[in-house]
Amino acid sequence: MKPVAALAALACAITVLALQGCELALLGGGAAAISAIEDRRTSGTLIDDEGIEIRVRRGVRENFGENTHVNVTSFNRSVLLTGEVPNEATRAEVEKIVLASANVRNVTNELQIAGVSSLATRANDSLITSKVKARLLDSNKVNPVHIKVVTESGVVYLLGLVSESEAADAVEVARTTGGVIKVVKIFELCKTGDLVCAPRAAPPAEQPKPGA
């Protein structure tokens, strides 16, 4: 391998690792930075969403192998399909796999009939997703835990259980993020007074120990 090519490959690997690190920092170890507010979905729904994604991905892989690039995102039992498939028949069959999966409420099929996207395109999409999440955090208007961000070929899809004002703020953040071509809203709206949208009560202040 030529020196220039080797450096390019190394830079690509570092970029991918860095992007993964950003994701983990926001959703894992960085939880303290966003006040550790819980997901608005119930624990049962979280488990269902994970199971739906696993089953559908497995079904797509078993039926179509490497001929497709299908991303499966389940949020509150609603499934978003993004990526590329070779023809309309495959697009329809993938949707059928989703609808046949247990606990699925509905599906938004955004699969494009096109060739499989390149690794460079996917890396750029990951970068955009990380930038949107970071800007949501910096905005102090929308909690990133409440918003699921998916990017495909520069198009940002926003999912979540949010109020109308949160939805508007999230769209504005995403729309004004560098590299974003389009923003697609797939929110479930709730009124600010609803339990699901109400802020979690602050924990009681720790009382000083006797004699301290």
Task: Describe the SSE topology.
Layout: H1 3-27, H2 43-64, E1 69-75, E2 78-85, H3 88-99, E3 106-109, E4 112-113, H4 119-139, E5 148-152, E6 155-162, H5 164-175, E7 182-189
Parallel strand pairs: 2-3, 2-4, 6-7
Antiparallel strand pairs: 1-2, 5-6
Helix pairs in contact: 1-4, 2-3
What are the defining features of this structure?
20% strand, four-stranded mixed β-sheet, globular, three-stranded mixed β-sheet, Histidine-containing Protein, Chain: A, 43% helix, 2 domains, 212 residues
How is this structure best summarized?
This protein has 212 residues and is α/β, with parallel strands linked by helices. 43% of the residues lie in helices and 20% in strands.
Structure description:
This protein has 212 residues and is an alpha/beta fold. Strands 1, 2, 3 and 4 form a four-stranded mixed sheet that branches. The protein has helices at 3-27, 43-64, 88-99, 119-139, 164-175, and strands at residues 69-75, 78-85, 106-109, 112-113, 148-152, 155-162, 182-189. α1 runs parallel beside α4 (119-139) and α2 (43-64) packs antiparallel against α3 (88-99). The chain has two domains: 39-116, Histidine-containing Protein, Chain: A (2-Layer Sandwich); 117-198, 2-Layer Sandwich (Histidine-containing Protein, Chain: A). Helix content is 43%, strand content 20%.
